[in-house]
Amino acid sequence: MTDKELRVSKIRDGTVIDHVTAGQALNVLAILGIDGSGGESVSIGMNVPSDKVGYKDVVKVEGRELSQSEVDVLSLIAPEATINIIRDFEVAEKNRVEQTDTVRGILVCPNHNCITNADEPVRTEFEVLGDGVRCAYCDTIIREGDVAEHIDARGSGETAL
Ligand code: CTP
Ligand code: ZN
Q: Domain range spanning residue 54?
């Protein structure tokens, strides 16, 4: 590794989300529900030169693994991302994100009249289309470029009771 590549220090235990589409790091944090208040140690590289994809973002979270819902939503905004599980400084697992048919939770339906926005304990569910996602309850479509604007800041996609 050259000096130029070493921008963010290595972590001991946690998850490195690598090869994130440049400019999407903050949206990755939103998907993970991380805003700093939870006390997690997080390092972010933005627009870091990458030999594979030109420029990329990198998000490193100490002491945290990702849920399947988080990975599914991640696949919408960072389809080339690699999820590295780090244990005792070593890369213990490396997985590419996979495109899924459905994403559950985390995204919020833009339709205020949707059942998922009523005071009901209904988890959001969206069918993944080629160029966006469609609410399974009301058919409202979120276009691909608008997905990031509909991430639930709390990361759950569930209406509070
Ligand atoms: N990493 C880290 N802390 C560690 C080990 C690895 O932050 N203790 C980071 C590396 O900086 C890199 C990612 O995890 O961003 C994957 O590490 P590694 O597989 O060693 O790097 P590459 O071989 O470059 O990965 P790839 O083949 O996926 O590009
Ligand atoms: Zn809806």
A: 14-96
